[in-house]
Write a structure and sequence with these properties.
Layout: H1 2-13, H2 18-33, E1 37-43, E2 50-56, E3 67-68, H3 73-81, E4 85-87, E5 109-117, E6 120-129, H4 137-160, E7 177-180, E8 182-185, E9 188-195, H5 213-238, H6 244-258, H7 260-271, H8 276-292, H9 297-320, H10 324-327, E10 332-336, H11 341-345, E11 352-357, H12 365-373, E12 377-379, E13 393-397, E14 402-405, H13 409-430, E15 446-451, H14 456-462, E16 468-472, H15 474-478, H16 486-500, E17 505-508, H17 535-540, H18 542-555, E18 562-566, H19 572-591, E19 600-605, H20 608-612, H21 614-618, E20 623-626, H22 628-636, H23 654-666, E21 673-676, H24 684-693, E22 697-700, H25 705-712, H26 717-727, H27 733-746, H28 750-753, H29 757-760
Parallel strand pairs: 9-10, 10-11, 11-12, 15-16, 15-22, 16-17, 17-18, 18-19, 19-20, 20-21, 21-22
Antiparallel strand pairs: 1-2, 1-6, 2-3, 4-5, 5-6, 7-14, 8-12, 9-13, 13-14
Helix pairs in contact: 1-2, 1-4, 2-4, 5-6, 5-7, 5-9, 7-8, 8-9, 13-25, 16-18, 18-19, 24-26
EC number: 2.7.3.9
Organism: Marinomonas communis
GO molecular function, one term: metal ion binding
Length: 762
């Protein structure tokens, strides 16, 4: 059964259109279950009617033409219940409704199962028999399992049109195609999309209209010949060391490459209007699916050979492809299946208007980086047909997490008004740069920045930063192919400390592991977020920890503005050990004659155990900083980089708010300074609540700082505390945010949080 399910799913995934996929399902299910009828009904999102989309056994001409109302018939009953209906004689059931023109009047037995994706019923899969009999439990289980496997494929095809056989980049009928993602960085971007992708990865190659069909074909044949040459060389070099059977593999590769039909198919796709890499992807993936569906194990394994050859050809093609950055004449919106910081680093920032990533969440590092640079971003757009969007017009709404493709003039005009309003707000923020962050009734709160790059110094000071609440030391570690020396680290930290002096600079010790990896220090774990990361790594490697601490303290010589912060603290023993090592490093540096003072030392509160030991930890350190990103992740058991569960990641979750308030309560009277350095601090609504709870400092990206300052200066502490009192009893995250927006509107600060026009477009 498992192999049958796998083969059906593979065939459906490889289908070239949604209708072809549905036809495969009804044909294969009818045969597998030996039923006389198999049909698929899909829900029309506009009318909620159930449309007969594909059938084997009923009148084929009825497909796409006949439908049932949302409250009509057994099919809609399955949909309303969202559970199977299994009947020996459907005709005697009170919900039975004969759909005229289908020819189903002679079929008695009925089994219908819902097709559900993300809690939404997309349609119903039905099998029928002429005889009166109830389908057995095994048959019902098979259909339920298959339905669950196919739901995602159907949902993606419906939502994106990804299975529609359109010419590359040809607009589908209509305009204002809207896709939902997760707001990653606020703001609006209007412009052309450019799809970017990692090298030699067939799966993410987009479709693109070539400038010259002839040159694309020529490049393809040159790449094909280069791969043939490579394989012949490898075969010749290894011929003395491998058996004739093993050498035969290279002969198989050459035969595949010499097969004129494969090359002809790719050339045909190029002539139809796709560039060579896109045509290669289409043909290779089609052939892979054919091999994967074969019964014979040997032939099935040839799918990996086809994939390998496709990658080799692609690699040679990409050598001839000019860099995307070379062709950019105006700012663009970068789109990728999984956008990374390194991809972003390849583009000049003045050429980047917006970002869209199919994978990831608002707490992914690229989203954090986008907020730091003020680039409107949408993450987790899982239904976006990104491979079809190269060079098309697009709007990115970083406030609501929406993406519009092929936008109409009307929607462009509406969003242009938001862009204009944003510019007006920025000029208002500019006037506040040198003013303190102080409420209307005189309550002062420090606004610091999170940083990791030298370039952040000027940007942060220019926006009124009072110091650094978090300097991420992993950044200089990540951009090297080895651990930086103590002297190199000292120079890097000195630049930050001098740049902000005399303001305090909080430097966090190396925080790798989880989703932050060093290429020269791989950490391979099944569950990295619950594994070897943060302080756990550095305490296990004293040579790394001591070199870093010594470099920090040396860098502070004569400046005396260093604060050291320890990440991922989960127990008191870790702090005791780290403090002893810091004191030792300080004594060593002092003995070397450096003019230094013992730095303030603090801990990050980002795991639940630290929340409940906050009082004990406060008695040991000088300050505590809540990392709201990881604390939210661990409290809610949600991987913040997993787009499948990203909708469950809420910094306004009642449990998160109560944990933040609890930390303040537990540390009262301990004389320890409290701050929040996660992304919640950079959200004006979050900043209001954090200030009301009693935190001393907020630390955020430099881009968020002016907006947060503008909002807090328009409120009294009494207003903020009243808002906190109203939302703390709430039990839903959405209710917290909606209530806060309502209260912000009543307080007259909503327009400072987001342009007024955005509400009308959501």
């Amino acid at each position: 059964m498992l192999s049958l399910l796998r083969r059906i799913t593979q065939e459906v995934t490889a289908a070239q259109s949604l209708q072809a996929a549905l036809d495969i399902i009804v044909r294969r299910v009818r045969r597998a279950m030996r039923s006389e009828v198999c049909s698929i009904y899909l829900v029309d999102p506009n009318t909620q009617d159930y449309i007969l989309m594909a059938t084997r056994g009923l009148n084929a001409d009825a497909a796409g033409k006949l439908s049932l109302k949302s409250d009509e018939g057994l099919v809609s009953l399955v949909g309303r219940r969202a559970e199977p209906v299994n009947l020996e004689d459907a005709h005697i059931h009170p919900a039975f409704h004969y759909l005229s023109g289908t020819g189903e009047e002679r079929y008695k037995s009925f089994l219908g199962v819902p097709i559900i994706h993300h809690r939404q019923v997309l349609g119903v899969l039905v099998v029928q028999h002429e005889e009166r009999r109830r389908f057995d439990e095994g048959e019902e289980a098979f259909l339920i399992t298959l339905s669950a496997q196919l739901a995602g494929v159907i949902a993606h095809a419906e939502a994106t049109g990804a299975m529609m056989s359109l010419t590359p980049n040809t607009p589908p009928p209509g305009s204002d195609f809207r896709y939902k993602g997760i707001a990653g960085s606020s703001g609006v971007a209007i412009g052309k999309a450019v799809v970017i992708f990692p090298p030699a990865d067939l799966d993410v190659i987009p479709d693109r209209i070539p400038q010259s069909t002839e040159s694309e074909i020529e490049d393809f044949y040159q790449a094909l010949e280069a791969v043939r040459s490579d394989i012949k060389k490898v075969s010749s070099r290894l011929s003395q060391h491998i058996s004739s059977d093993e050498k035969a593999l290279f002969d198989v590769y050459l035969k595949i490459l010499d097969d004129n039909s494969l090359a002809a198919e790719i050339v045909s796709k190029i002539e139809e209007g796709n560039w060579a890499p896109g045509a290669l992807r289409q043909v290779i993936k089609l052939h892979i699916s054919f091999f994967e569906q074969m019964e014979d194990p040997y032939l099935r394994e040839r799918a990996s050979d086809i994939r390998d050859l496709g990658r080799r050809i692609l690699s040679h093609l990409q050598e001839k492809t000019p860099s995307i950055t070379e062709d950019l004449t105006e700012p663009v919106i970068l789109v990728s299946e999984e956008l990374t910081a390194s991809m972003l680093g390849e583009f000049p920032l003045e050429k980047v208007k917006g970002l869209v990533s199919v994978m990831g969440s608002s707490s992914s590092h690229v989203a954090i980086l986008a907020r730091a640079m003020g680039i409107p971003t949408v993450m987790g757009a899982v239904d976006l047909p990104y491979s079809k969007l190269d060079k098309i017009d697009m709007i990115v709404d970083g406030y609501s997490g929406q993406i519009f493709t092929y936008p109409s003039e009307a929607i462009i005009d509406s969003y242009q008004q938001i862009v204009d309003e944003e510019r007006q707000l920025e000029s208002e923020y500019e006037q506040l740069k040198d003013l303190p962050c102080e409420t209307l009734d005189g309550q002062r709160i420090g606004l610091y920045v999170n940083t990791g790059l030298l370039a952040d110094i000027h940007r942060s000071l220019d926006r009124g930063a009072e110091g650094v609440g978090l300097y991420r030391t992993e950044v200089p570690f990540m951009i090297r192919d080895r651990f930086p020396t103590e002297a190199e680290q000292e120079q890097i930290y000195r630049q930050q400390l001098e740049g902000f002096a005399p303001a305090p600079v909080t430097i966090r010790t190396l925080d790798v592991g989880g989703d932050k990896a060093l290429p020269y220090f791989p950490i391979n774990e099944e569950n990295p977020f619950l594994g070897w990361r943060g302080i756990r790594v550095t305490l296990d490697h004293l040579e790394i920890f001591m070199a870093q601490i010594r470099a920090m303290i040396k860098a502070s010589a004569g400046l005396h503005n260093l604060k050291i912060m320890l990440p991922m603290i989960s127990n008191v023993a870790e702090v005791e050990e780290a403090l002893a090592l810091i004191r030792r490093a300080y004594a060593e540096v002092k003995e070397e004659g450096y003019d230094v003072v013992m730095p303030l030392v603090g801990v990050m509160i980002e795991v639940p155990s630290a929340v409940y030991q906050a009082k004990e930890l406060a008695g040991m350190v000088d300050f505590m900083s809540v990392g709201s990103n990881d604390l939210t992740q661990y409290l809610l058991a949600v991987d913040r980089n997993n787009s499948r569960v990203a909708n469950l990641y809420h910094t306004f979750h009642p449990a998160v708010l109560r944990a933040l308030a609890d930390i303040v309560e537990r540390t009262k009277g301990e004389g320890v300074k409290l701050s929040v350095c996660g992304e919640m601090a950079g959200d004006p609504l979050g900043a209001i609540l954090i200030m009301a709870m009693g935190y001393d400092t907020l630390s955020m990206s430099s881009t968020s700082l002016p907006k947060v300052k503008a909002v807090l200066r328009k409120l009294t502490m009494e207003q903020a505390q009243d808002m906190l009192r109203q939302v703390l009893p709430l039990v839903h995250s959405d209710a917290v945010r909606q209530t806060m927006m309502k209260l912000a509107r009543e307080a007259g600060v909503e327009r400072l949080i987001r342009p007024s026009k955005t509400a009308a477009l959501q």
